[in-house]
Every structure is written in structure tokens, then in C-alpha cells.
Amino acid sequence: MFKVDSLQDIQDMARGAVLLGTGGGGDPYIGELFVRAQIAEGHYPTVVSCDEIPDDAFVVSIAGIGAPSVIVEHLVSEKTLRVLLEQAVAYYGRKIDAFISAEIGGANSMFPLALSALSGIPVLDADGIGRAVPQLEMTTFSIFGVRATPALLIDDSGNVVKVEAVSDRMAEDLCRVNTMAMGSMAFTAIYPMSSADARRVAVQRTISQTLEIGRAIREGRESAGDVFDTLLECLSNRDGRTARILFDGKISDVVHETRDSWHWGQVTIAALNGSDDVCTIEIRNEYLVARVNGKTVTIVPDLIAILDRESAEPLTAEMLTYGQRVKVLGYAADPLLRLPQSLEVLAPRQFGIDEDFSPIEELG
């Protein structure tokens, strides 16, 4: 167990969450500001491992849902978070013992921490995917048997929608339609489960990983060495997962579109070494596939991150603009995401990409 009682730590965690968000999940900066304000007032989020609470503890996922380009424009409302908690306790008919992130990437890493600071309820050091994904049923929770519903949606105007669906895929459709009616931004209490369930189905130690990543980038900047070497060492030390720089260049073209509560786009990066090499990355909320000169070099569910070339600051998809000098990083997904039953939900074809999954270590 640890308390997030340092402004530096929450800033590092937000930075790490952007990298794990693979371009999506929304910019955590707004959530970071909220948590920093709570810390300044002496209200600290608490993070615990799944082993530190009883098996029958009641756990609920807290998340934002909607288009990242819209989420970034919303301040986090203390009133909305408190109402969400009150409504969830009444709806589920029992006290909530812990929160868990639906996805660790981007803003959704911050929302459970924000509610933890307000309520004193701890956050599990785990999440439902180890990255960000565009659809709510694309989680290890759902893949390994924990249902998304019953769930609640709430917006800042006080509208509340209760969702009970026959499948998690239908839950995604129902939540997406209602979120669009709410202005493409809502908060949700979803995936009710026990602590024993969370231990079985969640990707573990991801909250602490955001801190490790953010701290590595910051300390790499402050050292005399190469910040990217420090970052790659940090990533590779996590269960020996492959991490490498895929491309170094300047953004020569980028297309953004908000459609059906998703952020769609494509970014083209030209090499800086005088060659004609080009990297293209397809976006649907997250970076889904990176290709160099037409050859796939990393593909979902493995992670792709775009980072500022000088500072290694991770960039969300909405931050990308013409002329930015960047490096593209590929990072192997948690082994849980590569299991056959996971690939039935997370393979590239499930995102509309006409190719099969190949691990980053095999793409070379």
C-alpha cells in the first residue's frame, strides 16, 4: 500500500499514464490538476495491491467515457464524482471497498485516484487492459468473465443512466449512444466485481508502473545520459517485455476527426536523416498500428507511443501537430493480452485492420 502524497509523484504518474495510453484515454492533465488540488488540501489517494484486501471486498471500476478530444476540454467536477459514488452505492446496494481503473492509459488512470482522494476508498494497483482501448468490452475483465453491467453513467448536468445489457458488446453500444447524448463525455461506474475477481482478471501493478515510467523520464532528463535509454531500461525491466524505438522523425502530416464519439486519424512522420523513410500510424482513439515504409513494426494489442524527440514527453493523439519532432516507441503488451482468448477480442481485425497480430519482438 502507498499514499500518493507528493505533487511530483502525481505528475510522474500522469506522464506514465500518457505513455501507457498509446495516444488515447484522454489527456490526464485535467485529472492531475484535480488530484494535485486534493493533495494540497491534505486529501491523498491510496493505492493497494489486490492481495491487500479481502477476497470478498466489493470493487467497482470508475472511468470516463467518450471522445478523448472532448474529455480534455472538461474540468473534473468534485460534485459529479461525489454524486457518482452516492448513486453507485445506492444502485449496487452495498458499500464500495475499492476502485479499479478500467484502463490505465490517459485520463482514466486519474479518475479513480481523484475519487479515492475525495472518499478515502483505495484504488487497486491494477486495471482492465494495461493500456487504453476504444471500446469498453475490450478489457481483460470482460475477456475472463466479469460482466460490465449493471453500470451507471452520469454527466455534469446530473443526468443518470442505468445500464443493464445482455452482453458487454451491447453495453458498449448502449453506453456509447447515451454518452453521445450527454455531449460525448460522461463518467461511469462499471464492472462490479470482488477483489478475488480483480486478482484473477486484471492486469497487475499498473498504477505503480505509471509512477515508474514518469519518474524514469523525469530522472532521465535530469541526468547526463540519454532520456530514451533510461526509459527503455525502465520498460524492459517490467517482466522482460520488449521495448524499442521504432522511428525518429518530424510529423509531416496529421489528420484528426471526431466521429461517433471516437477520435479517428492518421499521422505521417518523415525521417530526419535525409532518407525517404516514412512512418505512418493509424488512430482510433489510440495508436493501433505503426508502419515504416509500409511494413508493420508494431500492432495492437502491443503498445505504440509517440514522444517528444528532446524531452521524451509522451503525446496523446490530440496533441499531434504538423512539424513536431518525435520518436515512436513500441512496447510489448502484458502477456495476459496475448493469450488466445484475449486476441479474440483485441486482435487487429477487431479494430478494422486487415492483418493478424504479430508480437513486436517478431517484427524486427
Q: Note the run of SSEs as H and E.
A: EHHEEHHEHEHEEHEHEHHEEEEEEEEHH
- Count all strands and give the number: 17
Distance between the termini: 39 Å
CATH class of the largest domain: Alpha Beta
Please give the structural blueprint.
Elements: E1 2-3, H1 7-20, H2 29-40, E2 46-48, E3 58-66, H3 68-71, H4 78-92, E4 98-101, H5 110-119, E5 123-127, H6 140-143, E6 151-154, E7 160-163, H7 168-181, E8 185-194, H8 195-201, E9 203-204, H9 206-222, H10 227-236, E10 243-259, E11 262-271, E12 278-284, E13 286-292, E14 295-299, E15 303-308, E16 314-315, E17 325-331, H11 340-346, H12 360-363
Organism: Sphingosinicella xenopeptidilytica
Protein name: DUF917 domain-containing protein
Outline of this structure?
This protein is an alpha+beta fold. The protein has twelve helices and 17 strands. Helix 1 packs across helix 9, helix 4 packs across helix 5 and helix 9 runs antiparallel to helix 10.
Task: Describe what this molecule looks like in 3D.
The protein has helices spanning 7-20, 29-40, 68-71, 78-92, 110-119, 140-143, 168-181, 195-201, 206-222, 227-236, 340-346, 360-363; strands at 2-3, 46-48, 58-66, 98-101, 123-127, 151-154, 160-163, 185-194, 203-204, 243-259, 262-271, 278-284, 286-292, 295-299, 303-308, 314-315, 325-331. With 364 residues, the protein is of the alpha+beta class. The chain folds into 2 domains: 2-204, CV3147-like fold (3-Layer(aba) Sandwich), CATH 3.40.1610; 241-363, CV3147-like, CATH 2.40.390.10. Strands 1, 2, 3, 4, 5, 6, 7, 8 and 9 form a 9-stranded mixed β-sheet that branches. A hairpin with a 2-residue loop joins strand 10 and strand 11. Helix 1 runs antiparallel to helix 2 (29-40) and helix 9 runs antiparallel to helix 10. It is globular, with a radius of gyration of 19 Å. The protein starts with a strand and ends with a helix. This is DUF917 domain-containing protein. Residues 167-360 form the S-Me-THD-like C-terminal domain. It comes from Sphingosinicella xenopeptidilytica.
